[in-house]
Design a protein that fits this description.
Layout: E1 4-10, H1 16-28, E2 34-43, H2 51-59, E3 63-68, H3 75-87, E4 91-94, H4 97-109, E5 113-118, H5 125-138, E6 144-147, H6 150-158, E7 166-168, H7 186-191, E8 199-203, H8 212-224, E9 230-234, H9 240-249, E10 256-260, H10 266-269, E11 274-277, H11 286-293, E12 298-301, E13 317-319, H12 324-336, H13 338-355, H14 358-372
Helix pairs in contact: 1-2, 3-4, 4-5, 8-12, 11-13, 12-13
Length: 377
Amino acid sequence: MRTIKILHLRDTYEIGGPGKTILETFRAIDHERFQLHLGVFAKHGESGDSPFTTEARRLGFPVHFVRGRHSYDPTMVSNVRDLVKALQIDIVHAHEAKSDVIAYLASRVVPVAIMTTLHGWIGNGLKGQVLIALDKRIVRKFDRVIAVSRQIERESLVAGVPKEKLRLLHNAIVVEKYQRTGIRGAFHEAVGRHVDRPVIASVGRLSAEKGHADLIDAISLVKQSGHILSLVLIGDGPERPKLARQIQSLGLEEVVHMLGYIQAPQRLLEGVDLMVLPSHTEGLPNAALEALLMEVPVLATRVGGTPEVITDGETGRLVSPQSPRELAAGILEFLNSPESWKQMALRGRDVVKTGFDFQARTRRLETIYSEALGRSV
């Protein structure tokens, strides 16, 4: 049987959750049955080099740049078409609204199966909202649609995706990469100065929907109650200047530390006392899986697929989104009862190990690829 050739399309600079899933899929896939290629969007004149493409090349993942004059240049469609022809691609696998649209349009001019993984529809600004509205119309026509959470599965059905094309496939994690070593102090090295304990961290792109502004407000409320603590934000993004101004206006410069993007945060997580994920919307947060495997308690908002990882009061705590006061109350609860939160983290670690293993996820993905081409497994 001929090897199935798959072109992953991804519009990103940083690795992030979806990018990490793509890279780990390349590691875990059965290379005798599947040949993976990576298509990354870039403007003319740009090198295209990024943490994502650098790591892909390091793994031996073939990288191809889909170039255009600007982010929505229609010639990108013909570039994808040419890649499909040159590489004899069987499936184009898209990963966000932009690559969904380009994959769909390319499939209209060259025969190729198309799939998408829906990580969550996030529309920041009018352009993003228009793109998502278009995406919800076209994904109905894809050969397979993967939802990373039950919430996204429900949203997909509402958007008109036929049930027979829809597959639930949770995000997962390579368990072996998240083992505690007992070595702490990585924060002092990363920040470059003393960091007060307990250390609260939030991992994620600094984008409006991630809710970091709510968390900073919550930290201000906790500080007003007399507690000493530190907040470390791990990630970068368009909201960074605005968040820096907020930190300054609240007088939290000695409390909140923005470390920027860190590709492998495991050693930093070993020094974290509490992970807080204040998102307004989510697919299924890899940061929660990573924290629990590192035995770090999690406080998160009750959005998207997060409740499919965090069972409130059992494996972590959930609060309402866009509520700094509820976040502050959760942090105070942790500060007053850290040991009970540690027990929740240990239960969460066991749930992640048994229910979110990456090898098992990859075997299910291989089945979906074969289904998309009408092949038996």
